[in-house]
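Hi, here's the filled form for the chain we discussed.

Project: internal
Contact: R.S.
Residues: 662
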Amino acid sequence: MTIRTLLVANRGEIARRIIRTARSMGVRTVAVYSDADREAPHVQEADAAYHIGPAEAVHSYLDGNRIIEVALRAGADAVHPGYGFLSESAGFAAACEAAGVRFVGPPAEVIRLMGSKIEAKGRAVAAGVPVVPGYNGEDQSDDTLCAQAERIGFPLLVKASAGGGGRGMRIVQKASDVRAALAAARSEAQAGFGDASLLLERYVEKARHIEVQVLGDAHGNVVHAFERDCSLQRNHQKVIEEAPAPGLPEALRQDILTSAVQLARFIGYQNAGTVEYLLDDDSGEFFFLEMNTRLQVEHPVTEAVTGLDLVECQIRVAGGAPLGVQQHDIACRGWAIEARVAAEDPAAGYCPETGVISAYCAPETCRTDSGVETGSVVSHHYDSMLAKVIAHAGNRRAAIERLAAGLSRMRLDGLVTNLGFLADLLRAPAFQEGRHHTGTISAHFPGGWRPRAIGGSLRATAVLARYLADRPMAADPWHAIGAWRAVRVGGRSGMAVYYLDHQPAEIRETADGWTVTLTGEPPHGFAHVSAAPGRIIHEQGGQRHAVDYAVQGADVTMKTEAGRFSVKVETGEEAFLVETGGSASAGREIRAPMPGLIVELLHAPGATLSKGDPVVVIEAMKLLQTLTAPCDGVLSETPHQPGETVQKQSILAVFDPEETPT
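And the returned structure, exactly as it came back:
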């Protein structure tokens, strides 16, 4: 069968990635979109596009029947699910085949089999592949699981059989915490996957996450495309990935690669898939974790070092053709590293961010797979990842340097991103030296990530940027908006005042530019200034500098040769006026930190709670966040119920504080 029309059942960067390869193969592409994605880039780039429902994924991108209906209407021969959404749904794969539409992935039965971590471990054992010591039996009673936990020992990992991305997963340090962890993991697994089954595994505290890209076809060919290291993770979610894995002894590497092919051949695997392993850094043992029966987010690093187009391989195999490559044809050349750029605020506990991207520009020296462009709206309905930046070079050191330079030059304005966090990870000694493991991020930032301190010169530049953003372009310099100014009687020059950390910063006009004076510092001069919206070019001490900046209210973000920096530059009103309704009620309310969906209310009004007790579970960008009581007292109101979508700062719970004895 030859595939002539391909429906891409996904959105964002992976939809654009699939469309790009399909077009190069001469395959017509069909995009689908929700209400939130009507103007999205993937919709514009496909040959045809069909609306499939409202913004909520469950009513659009997760509506398999609707997608198959559109595929038939559009005359599609095949459906490519990408990753996420329906990519690992055995039911959807079977429904596609039943409707006469090829599913670009493995057979439905293989997806079902390997989608259950319990069944997948059983097949791995049968194939002679080492697995993490643990329990994956049918008896799911608390008594049995607690007994098995004692047998395995602590620390212990409780995992949802159908889970992924850290959902339905709990680390348990001692026996007395097992029952609570089981209850929490079951609840999250049932809500997220509709399957409350659990398994237990020994928790390897200093582990590396190694995965092998495998490819199979319907003609019995199975090959590997080498391994990737995905050990830099936060809450079990990958942040930076690379190929090949650093520091692996060659004999160990070959054992891992052989093991992955052995398992894929044993289960009759077809199409692209990934066999994931846990490598104990201390003992050198490796254990099978799970198999992802789809394309991975991090597939570009494998493409970079092997020269393969994995999406092309997928489409060829789905069309009935052989892979076209043998194992001896696939070589690993150079080094590739990928960083996931996300709409989140690492300094605020990695809270997801929403908004409009006011300016976007990808680095020219790296491959960038992106789902956004200037003007794109980032909503709370979908994953927070905006783009993947991939650097390929002759060796690991050069790849790190190229990626760091690319991230520093990337422009993504309008909302907070994790670019600064990624830059610091690339500079971390453990990563630079290839000594990183799955606990490196928490070890390197034990108190959470914080942006680097900004020097006086950049702080002064931020003041000038805010001033230029406030100033009407056609107006006199001293018509600046919002800053107090004193103009010398009878003269042209004057002064505008802003505030940094509630300390005044004065900006004055000079004959050849401006000076900015920060509290306790000598003046910073800006000579021969050439300013355009979003960019300042100036001289300091005879050296030319160029700074890209973005201003949102009082928040000024700057990008320089040294990286990305943010600072708050306020007018007097912003710095000193108290917002209405501020401190009086803040201590007795829980407000939504982001737009999202109320997943669960853990207590009913009337409950007496202590400060820090969990109260509300909210979901945004596929992440669950538990919000806790702000004080001791009685829960008096819960204005929103599970299933409701709320906006940022919506009141979710109100408390009557416990009175303090006088």
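Let me know if anything looks off before we file it.
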